[in-house]
């Protein structure tokens, strides 16, 4: 019998192909070598280890699920497995890949012109250009339709004004995909205001990104405020396809799918941590793992992990078959984030006082998951998406 992780109670590995296992193992090796030995210090110091970005690109992680343009062209399931391994290392580092590939690159891939794709995607896949995705605003989080960022047309230029908040990688990005309300002409020649995407080089005058400090979560990553004042862009900076919220929402679906996998990585790493710890930690003359209460906690956590992993795998198979629907992604994001954070919290409790130190991962994972649970749609938003699917009645307002 092949060696399997102790947490794999259902032989889930048997459902994976040799190619999928190869991708998983390659990313797991990277995490073991480059992330685990350093992540506690990076987290404590609130440092995004930018030296890892070229290595991530070399592994083919940037836009790895996109076809052509220098991208790896891997399957959705392979991408999901890679995100599970990256988040087993740290959610913040998995977010780097999500922002670059699922958001910034996907925005160009799904909504850009062929010229824009040829210009930017190969460089982004190679890590030569880093991107960010500016949708959320200080007063427009779960309701992006209320954004106040605007783009007006002046001759051969677009002029952007507004603010964005919680924008990953913005302070190190070379380009920003900025979503703004802009006048848009329909096929009948009528002009209405719609949300449009723009490719904004971050060295454009009037564009400023400021790192958000004093975070209690996602400390080994970077989130920023963006201020734009009379940012002037050429006419061809606009993403021509899919005007309206369909443009950014299709990118959010990509990111949410990756999160459904990634959260299970944080959960699995937490269980593996306490399996090792409880086998060695002696209390009242025997290992902590030998007590019934500890075994109950381990069993409960492993059950939820296996269910979440099977859910993520099912979503991957559906996505590869072209059958994944938006509400299904909400099932994965809502369930697996909620499950993962409870597993990580319970794992921290098994560690006792030692669990609040950086020597052990569960509390760091739990803190990170507070952010993961919030971005790309809060629990409440995904609950309402599913409620709408079940009843046919939208209850967002």
UniProtKB/TrEMBL annotation:
Catalytic function, reaction form: glutaryl-CoA + oxidized [electron-transfer flavoprotein] + 2 H(+) = (2E)-butenoyl-CoA + reduced [electron-transfer flavoprotein] + CO2
Domain Acyl-CoA dehydrogenase/oxidase C-terminal: 246-389
Source organism, top-level taxon: Bacteria
The protein's annotated pathway: Amino-acid metabolism; lysine degradation; Amino-acid metabolism; tryptophan metabolism
Organism, scientific name: Nesterenkonia sedimenti
Protein name: glutaryl-CoA dehydrogenase (ETF)
Pfam family, one: Acyl-CoA_dh_M
SUPFAM superfamilies membership: Acyl-CoA dehydrogenase C-terminal domain-like (SSF47203), Acyl-CoA dehydrogenase NM domain-like (SSF56645)
This protein's record includes keyword Flavoprotein: yes
Signal peptide span: none
Keyword Flavoprotein: yes
Ranges where the Acyl-CoA oxidase/dehydrogenase middle domain occurs: 132-231
Domain Acyl-CoA dehydrogenase/oxidase N-terminal: 17-128
Keyword set, alphabetical order: FAD, Flavoprotein, Oxidoreductase, Transit peptide
Gene3D superfamilies (UniProt xref): Acyl-CoA dehydrogenase/oxidase, N-terminal domain, Butyryl-CoA Dehydrogenase, subunit A, domain 2, Butyryl-CoA Dehydrogenase, subunit A, domain 3
Family according to the record: Belongs to the acyl-CoA dehydrogenase family.
Cofactor: FAD
């Amino acid at each position: 019998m092949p060696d399997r992780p102790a947490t794999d109670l259902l032989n889930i590995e048997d459902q994976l192909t040799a190619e999928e296992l190869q991708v998983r193992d390659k990313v797991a090796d990277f995490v073991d070598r480059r992330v685990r030995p350093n992540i506690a210090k990076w987290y404590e110091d609130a440092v995004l280890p930018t030296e890892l970005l070229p290595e991530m690109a070399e592994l083919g992680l940037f836009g790895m699920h996109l076809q052509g343009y220098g991208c790896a062209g891997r399957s959705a399931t392979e991408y999901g497995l890679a995100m599970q391994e990256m988040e087993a290392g740290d959610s913040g580092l998995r977010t780097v890949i999500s922002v670059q590939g699922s958001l910034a690159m996907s925005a160009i891939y799904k909504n850009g012109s062929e010229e824009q794709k040829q210009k930017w995607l190969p460089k982004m896949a190679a890590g030569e250009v880093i991107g960010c995705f500016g949708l959320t605003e200080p007063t427009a989080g779960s309701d992006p339709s209320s954004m106040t960022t605007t783009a007006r047309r002046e001759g051969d230029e677009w002029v952007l004004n507004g603010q964005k908040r919680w924008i990953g990688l913005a302070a190190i990005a070379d380009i920003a995909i900025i979503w703004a309300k802009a006048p848009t002409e329909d096929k009948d020649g009528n002009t209405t205001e719609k949300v449009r995407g723009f490719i904004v080089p971050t060295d454009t005058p009037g564009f400023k990104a400021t790192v958000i400090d004093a975070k209690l979560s996602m400390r080994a990553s970077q989130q920023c405020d963006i201020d734009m004042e009379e940012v002037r862009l050429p006419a061809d900076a606009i993403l021509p396809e899919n005007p309206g919220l369909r443009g950014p929402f299709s990118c959010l679906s990509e990111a949410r799918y990756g999160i459904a996998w990634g959260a299970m990585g944080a959960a699995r790493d937490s269980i593996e941590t306490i399996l090792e710890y409880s086998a060695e930690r002696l209390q009242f003359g025997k290992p902590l793992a030998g007590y019934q209460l500890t075994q109950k906690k381990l069993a409960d956590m492993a059950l939820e992990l296996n269910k979440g992993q099977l859910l993520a795998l099912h979503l991957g198979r559906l996505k590869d078959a072209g059958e994944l629907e938006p509400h299904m992604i909400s099932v994965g994001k809502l369930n697996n984030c909620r499950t993962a954070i409870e597993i990580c919290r319970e794992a921290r409790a098994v560690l006792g006082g030692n669990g609040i130190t950086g020597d052990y991962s569960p509390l760091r994972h739990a803190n990170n998951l507070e952010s993961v649970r919030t971005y790309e749609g809060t629990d409440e938003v995904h609950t309402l998406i599913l409620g709408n699917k079940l009843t046919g009645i939208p209850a967002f307002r």
